[in-house]
Amino acid sequence: MKPIDYTVMPCSSSDVFAAKLQKPAGLGDDWLEPTQRHYNVEEHRVWDHLYKRQMDILKGRACDQFFSGLKQLDFDAGGVPDFNKSNEILKSITGWTIVPVPMLIPDHVFFYHLANRRFPTGNFIRKPDQLDYIEEPDVFHDAFGHVPLLTDPAFAHYMEAYGKAGWKAIQYNHLKALSALYWYTVEFGLINSEAGLRIYGAGILSSAEESVFALEAKSPNRIHLNVDRVMRTDYKIDDLQQSYFVIDSFEELFKLTEERPFDNIYQNIGASFQYAPSATLDTDHIYTRGTQEYALRGGHASDANPV
User: Fold this and answer.
1) What residues does 100 pair with on adjacent strands?
2) For 14-67, what is each residue's pLDDT tens digit?
3) Given CB 3.0 to 4.6 Å as the disulfide criterion, which of 62, 140, 148, 181 pairs with 58?
4) Is the Cβ–Cβ distance between 246 and 208 less than 8 Å?
5) Count of domains observed in the chain
């Protein structure tokens, strides 16, 4: 097989099952905006409010690598970080950079940037009345939640490998399966530590409610990561998770994905997910078998208590 040139964006035809997004006028195929936008005083205040709130909540809950990354990047200087300054530091550590995008971008464009060690970051911030939930990832979710861990070499390698895996997912028309892996690791993953389970997923790190729920609630399952199983597991994008998957280290995460031939997975899975978000299997290594009370009571839609 001809080696893949990851410096060339993968093609995504109309035959590939993926969301169709309308590209804003004036942008190239890479969807990048020329520069980071200028944030006003109110927007910087939103960042500062969210930053302080999360730092208070995440003490004793987030993994050590996250706090180390924040410190190295000097993210507590106040206001939305300057991408140029952050990139000088980040690139010197792991070779990654932050690049501004206007909105959620297509899968094949996202893979292209990750494979080349560029993390697409929303070039906007939520409004004061959206502090607890926003549909599209903004600069707080992306920069605060994702970027600090890109200072960790093993996690940085995993993210690059994930981006490169996108070429094969497109080839087999199984983007959703690969998205499930991203969801349950990069966005909502937990990691073992000497002090117990800790958070590394950006979707949890940037959420006040889920930062507590993911570790302390009785409702969700907590299961050790199995790549094949996770890629067959459905997920919810608009509520607290029913299951969280756990790793022992970022080195393990990289090894589990780098050494697993995805061709075998894609050739043996159907078009739809095999397991529900709440499922536990006989083959699972289960840390906590959740009650699923929160989901069974209707989740956010019913104002259920996240217990």
Assistant:
1) 121
2) 777 777 898 999 999 999 999 999 999 999 999 999 999 999 999 999 999 999
3) 62
4) no
5) 1
Tokens 């464009």, residue located? 109
Residue 48 located in a structural domain = yes
| Domain of residue 55, CATH code | 1.10.800.10
What pLDDT, in 10s, does the model give residues 191-207?
Answer: 999 999 999 999 999 99
Cα gap 245→198, rounded to integer Å = 11
Residue 107 neighbours by CB under 8 Å, 6+ apart: 12, 18, 19, 166, 169, 170, 175, 179
Q: Distance between CA 154 and CA 255 in Å, rounded?
A: 10
HEC string for 78-94: CCCCCHHHHHHHHHHHH
By DSSP bridging, strand 221-224 and strand 196-199 are unpaired
- For 48, the token pair is 């500062």
In a domain, 189, yes or no: yes
- Range 121-143 average pLDDT: 93
User: Whole domain around residue 119: which residue ranges?
Assistant: 41-302
Q: Answer whether residue 166 is part of any domain.
A: yes
| Mean pLDDT computed over 110-138 | 94
- Write out pLDDT tens, residues 136-194: 899 999 999 999 999 999 999 999 999 999 999 999 999 999 999 999 999 999 999 99
Q: Which of 142, 98, 134 is nearest to 116 (CA)?
A: 98
- Cα(125)–Cα(40) distance, rounded to whole angstroms? 10
- Contact criterion met (CB below 8 Å) for 107 and 115: no
Q: How many CA atoms lie within 13 A of 223 on its CB side?
A: 23
User: Is 19 contained in some domain?
Assistant: no
